[in-house]
Each structure stands twice: as C-alpha cells, then as structure tokens.
Amino acid sequence: MKTTLSLFCCSLSLLFCFYLPRGSLSAGVDRCKLPPRGWNSYDSFCWTISEDDFLKSAKVVAKYLKSHGYEYVVLDYLWYRRLVPGAYTDSLGFDVIDQWGRMVPAPDRWPSAKSGSGFAEVAKEVHSLGLKFGIHVMRGLSRQAFDANTPILDINTGRAYEESGREWRAQDIGIKERSCAWMPHGFMSVNTSLPAGRAFLSSLYHQYAEWGVDFIKHDCVFGDDFNLEEITYVSGLLKKFDRPILYSLSPGTSVTPTMAKELKGLANMYRVTGDDWDSWGDVASHFDVARDFAKAEMVPGEGLLGSSWPDLDMLPLGWLTDAGANQGPHRQCNLTLDEQRTQMTLWSMARSPLMFGGDVRQIDETTYKLITNPTLLEINDYSSNNMEFPYVTGKILGPARNHLMRRSKISMLKRVNNHHTRVVGVTSCKDPNANGWSVESLGQYHEQICWRKEDEQLNREPLCLYKRKPLLASSEHVLYGQDNRRLFTSDNGVKSCLDASPRHKLTSSEWKKKQPSFSTCRGDANQMWKLSSNATLRSSYSGLCARVKQVKANDVRTSGVRSWIATGRQGEIYVAFFNLNVEKTLISAKLSDMAKVLPGRNLEDKADCKGREVWSGQRYEAVADSLEMVVDKHGCALFTLNCS
Q1: Which of 69, 574, 76, 566 minimizes the C-alpha distance to 314?
Q2: Among residues 476, 530, 471, which one has the least CA distance to residue 500?
Q3: Nearest in space to 385 (alpha carbons), one of 191, 568, 603, 587
Q4: For the purposes of burial, counting CB atoms within 10 Å of the CB of 90, is it exposed (0-12), middle (13-18) or buried (19 or more)?
Q5: Inter-residue contact 231 to 221 (CB < 8 Å)
Q6: How far is CA 597 from CA 96, 383, 386, 628, in A?
Q7: Which of 360, 328, 314 has its CA nearest to residue 109?
C-alpha cells in the first residue's frame, strides 16, 4: 500500500453472523439484500497468485477497504495448477488432484496446503481479518481426473462410491463431449442424472465448505456455456450447509433476462457480459445489457437465501496483468480517469456487484478514492427505481468548460448508418425470438437450415447452414439422439461447423461484435444442434437455442449520450449523464421528463430543486427547468438532487 493512503486507514470489527453491518449500516440489515462487494485476484494476477501474495492482499483489503463494504477476497481460477514451465491457462497434466479426483491447492504456490488441509489455513487467516474467503471453480470434472479414472468419494461412508454391486469412477460420470468450450483440456460436465455424478459434486462442495469457503464463483456453467442441471444441483447443496455461501455464476456471454429468469432462487450473482478489461469498448458495451436487466426488474431478483444481482464483471482499475498471462501485475490501467469514473458510475447506478480487480498492494490514491466514493457506494447499496433515463439529449461541442445551463430544448446529433450485419448467438429456448429456423431441401440427399426472420424486410438472402450427420460412436448416439446434426459452412471446400460457445473467452466488446463462431468440425456437443417442431435450433452443449440478430454497423449506441436515474433512501434523486462520444458534448435533461419516470417525486413544472455534481463538487441552489452540463470525452456527470 502506498504511503499516500495512510490517512485513509480505517477498521471494522469482526462479526460472524448472517446479518452484518456494511460500513455505516445499522446492525440487523440483511447482507444478502445488498450487492456483493470485494476484491478478486484475476485482473491483477490472472492464475499465478501465491499464498503469500493473496494473504498480503487480504490484509490490505481489511485495513483500507473493509469499512467501505469490500468484504470478500476471492481467489480466481487455476489455484490447483503448478506454476512450472509448460503450464498455462489450458494446459493438461499440471494440476494437483487428490485420490478422489478433486482439485486441491498446488503446494508450490500454497504451502499451507501441504498438510492435506486444503485452503483451511488460508480461510482461517482471512476470517481473522474480518473478511470472507472465496474461490473460483470450473464446471464438473477435470480432464486430468477423467484420464486417471479416479474413484468417486461417497461422503456418507468415506469410501469409494458403490452402486449396483460395483465401484464408480470418473469415466462413468464425465461427459467428455461436453468439455468447456474455451478450456477443452481443463474440465467437462458430469452426468447429474446419475447418482454417482451427484455424489461427485457433493464431495466437491462439502470439501469447499469444510475448508471454510464463503463464496463460490462457478465458471463455464452460464451464458453460452449454460448448464442448468449442474447449477441447480450445486445450489441445492449450498442451501443445505449450516452457514451461507454466496453463489456466483460465470461467464455472461449471450445472457438475456429471459435466460437469467431460469436461475430464480438458485444464485446470488450472475455475469451478464463477456470479460471486462480496461478498454473503452468493453466499458461502452455494458450500457445496453445494464438497461435490459433494469427494465426487466431483475435488480435485484430472488436469489439463493437472499437476492440475486446481474453482475457487470470486475473493475479492472489500478495495477493490472493481461488476460491469459503467466505473470502478475505489471502495468497500469489503460482507461482514462474520465472512463474509469464512467465505469464506476454505471456499475453503481445499475447496482452491480463491485469486485475490484487491481493489485490492492499498489493501489494509488486516485483509484482508492474512486472505488470508495461515498455517493457511489450509497447508490450501489440503497438506491431504488434504477433505470436508464431515455429522455436525455446531447449536442457535440468544441472545447468548453463544465457548467450548468437552463434550456428547454437541445438538439441531438445522430450518426445514421443503415448497413446491417447479422450476429449469431444463443438465448433461452423460451425466448420467442428464438423460433425462426426452417429446413430447406437442396436435392434428394441434402438439406440446409435457414434463419429467415427479418431478412425479407431487409431484402437480403437468409442465413443458411448445411446439415451434416455426426460421425458418432454408438454410445454417443444415446447422448445426442438421432436427430442431432452438425451445421457447417464451406469456404473453398474447407468445412467449418457452427459452435454453440466460442473456443476462447470473449471480452465484453468482442462479444458485442460477435459473428457466427465456426471451427473445425468435431464430434463434441458444442457443435450438435437439433431443429425442433417449434422452429427453434437447440444446442446439445448448453440446452440453449440459436438466434440471429440484425444489428447496425457502427450503431449509434456505441456513441452518443446515455443517462441513468434512481432514487435514494432519503428522498434524493440521482441523475447520471454519460458521454460516449469522442468529443465534448453538452448533455441536457428536463425535470418535467424526469417526472414521467418518477411520479410523485416533486418534479413538476414549478419544482424547486437543489443539487450537487459529484465529480466537480459544484453545488446548485436552483435547478428549475433542466439539468445541463458539458461532459468530456467518455466522461460522466453525476447529480444528487433534492426537490420540493
């Protein structure tokens, strides 16, 4: 921790109970009704963090961030992988597993685990600091355990699981064809319809509970990699433990409110975007999805033993590493200060969980003040009626200073581009927009499957894919069924098949521009599709359905202006302006328009409002008609209004 933060040192007494205060909260507030907040190791260490680095980071969090509600310290993925030459994010054969095929901490990085106690000592140290300990886990079973064909632990007997007169092993329950699409050498689904499959998952999560884990980040089970069966079973296990364990789901590519509603009562937070890194494109890609979940009234929703929260991903601020790197923090955040303020303001207005990702040991004063800003944290914890405000207008200007003005109308500059492109993604099969597929004959022996929705209106050829029978072993026919097919396209005679989930992790901005994902034709479930009688195309990998979106190239929503509005617990009104343009922009909103979305909030024509803009610190004694401010490139303004 830099010496510049010495003035900010604060402490918070340790309370182990289900109802805990956050910062200045009064005792008795239900912690599960607030967006989770903490620190995650991924953005600063990728997978390479050691026990020493983790515990030093936890001590900094306890000293400087705990009193601001940052209560979780979460160890991200591959804590079981040995840090040796040849090991990387999708390497095979470098993981440490126990005799039952379960991942255990790599002792070269986690020396306290050498005794066989797993993370028990680390969790004990974290708890002594007044914090909660979290870990990242992947779907199902590791490829390494599958190849070793390890026995399955029966937690009721302490011996190998037996059923029907035989001992069950990893290869009896692992579904190799349903390996995680972006980590195929890492993990695969287990067959949860088998008692032995459920026994294996039970042995995993009971071990995590015994270690003292308070937070589970479950990856490759949501979004494009949706695995509702495993989520449901794991959620049931966590619900039965004698203490709360927060349940987080990832990744968030292709997530829609319709898909997320299938999680009702199962999880506490779930990603709704691709990985967020420190690029403006990643930040800007979050506005639409945040709007959609607020509009669907899912902030919050019903979660596991409490609420659930759409998660916009970690905050990659401060000192960072790179995605997939084999090294720890080595560079500064690429976002400008204005862009960082925009990100933190949007995350707070949308009431996303706040998980700081930078290296807390090297946090600078500017970053610290941003992630502990009291107005933002108050909004994140307690605001209500959070929504995108649609009546904001803007006008691009030359150089100007921030100021507040009164005008009745401001014209908005729009860039019009009528060129459309098609994006193939997946969605819940319950989504009415998923049924647009049909079969067309190409002759006596060949067929193609085409998406025709919107194409006739746009006078363009439909998107079509050829059908190809899977080359499967007899046992695989049972898994997929006779009607499943691979769908391929051909370029100069080279055939590539449609993937349900991309073969690498996508950032938020990459997913926003996602084109159909094709790769070499294989026999795995990620390329198996079934056309149903209701015109949906269902994936054997995730159970989700394919759909095609028509989007405008250089859509105006990647530039222009946006705004959010919310109300506070003391009657205040929060208004945020966001400038997505590359030029300074005059942004305006009328109080009378605010009254349309916040009826009964003293915003009528003769309203007398006083306010303050957070980032400039300016106070306004009379805001009668409208709010206006010139906002810098990619920057934001945040107003707190009190009206009578």
Answers
A1: 76
A2: 530
A3: 568
A4: middle
A5: yes
A6: 55, 15, 10, 18
A7: 328
Q: How far is CA 615 from the centre of its chain?
A: 27
Which two tokens mark 616? 């400039």
Q: What is the DSSP letter of 444?
A: S
pLDDT digits (tens, 9 = 90+) for 224-243: 999 999 999 999 999 999 99
Q: Which of 364-373, 444-453, 502-511 has the lowest mean pLDDT?
A: 502-511
374-382 and 337-349 helices, crossing angle to 10°:
30
Residue type, 570: Q
Contact 43, 316 (CB under 8 A): yes
The predicted model gives 552-556 an average pLDDT of: 48
Q: How far apart are CA 89 and CA 278, in angstroms?
A: 20
pLDDT tens for 456-497 read 555 667 888 877 654 444 333 333 344 566 676 666 667 778
Tens-digit pLDDT profile for residues 13-28? 323 333 344 544 444 4
Phi/psi of residue 578, each to 5°?
A: -125, 130
Question: Tokens 């560079």 map to which residue?
Answer: 331
Strand (E) or helix (H) holding 45: helix 42-45
* pTM (predicted TM-score): 0.87
pLDDT (tens digit per residue) in 38-92 = 999 999 999 999 999 999 999 999 999 999 999 999 999 999 999 999 999 999 9
DSSP symbols for 163-181: ETTEE-BHHHHEEEEEE-T
Residue 505: how many CB atoms within 10 A of its CB? 21
- CA 134, chain centre distance (Å): 16
